[in-house]
Amino acid sequence: MTVPGDAAEPEGARVPATVVVGTQWGDEGKGKLTDLLAKDMHFVVRYQGGHNAGHTIVVGGEHFALKLVPSGVLYPHIVPVIGNGVVVDPAVLVAECEALERCGVDTSRLVISGDAHLIMPYHYEIDRATERYLGRQKLGTTKSGIGPAYADKASRIGLRVQDLLDEKIFRQKLSVALREKNAVLAKVYNRLALDEGEIAERYLGELAPLVAPRIADTVGLLHDALDAGRNVMLEGAQATYLDLDHGTYPFVTSSNPTAGGACVGSGIGPRDITRVVGIAKAYVTRVGAGPFPTEVDGGLADLLVERGHEYGTNTGRRRRPGWLDLVLLRHAVRLSSISEIAVTKLDVLSKLAKLKVCVAYEADGVRLSRVPYHQSVLHRVTPIYEELDGWEEDLSGATELGELPPAARVFLEVVARHAGVPVTFAGVGPGREQFVRLAA
Ligand code: IMP
Prior knowledge:
There is one protein chain. By secondary structure, this protein is of the alpha/beta class. It has helices at 30-37, 90-102, 121-134, 146-155, 167-187, 196-211, 218-227, 259-266, 298-307, 326-335, 375-380, 406-419; strands at residues 17-22, 43-46, 55-59, 62-66, 79-82, 87-88, 111-113, 117-118, 215-216, 232-235, 273-281, 284-286, 320-322, 324-325, 340-344, 354-363, 366-368, 382-389, 423-427, 435-437. The protein starts with 16 loop residues before the first strand and ends with a strand. The structure holds inosinic acid.
């Protein structure tokens, strides 16, 4: 394995890393914030998930929709790292790098952990077949093979990125895994068997030579970087309530986006992380099935979806919108030791006469100020809202707190009060420069 990038000479004191984590059900606009913070970073690391993520970044009016490659790739001084906790479809990786190169973005610095697991063709088949089999109970996955790939990792029959470097091992593992997968596909799901030779040829013959130069000891690389005083950012995909352990199971993804997952998925220990930025959209959306106490419908839903362009980056699916849920936000702060909040898409709420934020729930006549421990209760809670004044002004040109209308400032104060940590950033438009920085 190669060790490219910045295996730096010690230069400064070891510095703590920063984690960026979504506090809702994803699509909070993490890409924009990670892109912004990236200016001061040397390494940007993806630690979980795969190409089920979709980070949209607008630079100079051009939209970049990144799925797998860390958003820091757009900065020439950054080494983007795909950590061991990610699941990688090498074909998607190669295609994404080629597309970026065509736009003039240099991807040569990108490195991938050899311990990351591979998404294989049968993972897609099983993802699709399981969803069909579940019928009305389906999860609404992105059908990218994520769950089945993580399941194989846990069952210890997964293939890893480093296996691409060893033909004998790759073929051996593929043969074992495929025997079982084909039996399941044929006998349970009534699907055609996949051809072992074709898969091996595609992965070993076509993709391995393109991926091999990027495979690296990313754990060693990151620790050398921290030792040398370099800034490392760990970029979460999906979000808190899609977390396999802490999310609204089973309507979750199969990895751990919460900050603890950043340690496992990158090989950096908890004491190396001091700053955890939680991203909260000024309203909430979720894709796919699952409980959503503050969900709205009708004209308000259409308005939020259209103004906020709430359609999946990769799948094009319409997202379900709702009011900001501060009960969930408070809990997300605890789960990930969030030290500050970045509020995104504040501009989308402009021109609404009244705004609502959920400050507690009610179930069976009882007021609940925390996320109920039993999920059946979460399914039937009624949100208790605090109503706030809206604002008429267009926020898109604001760059300082003083340029925000008083009602927008009150909104941010309410968020900070309920979250229990400062709001340090407010996004006011899709462009890279459209944000307001607030004092911590
Ligand atoms: P999977 O990650 O494809 O297995 O999908 C599991 C659940 O997570 C589904 O409800 C998806 O809609 C949701 N999900 C996965 N990735 C994202 C994302 O990047 N944003 C929002 N929802 C996501």
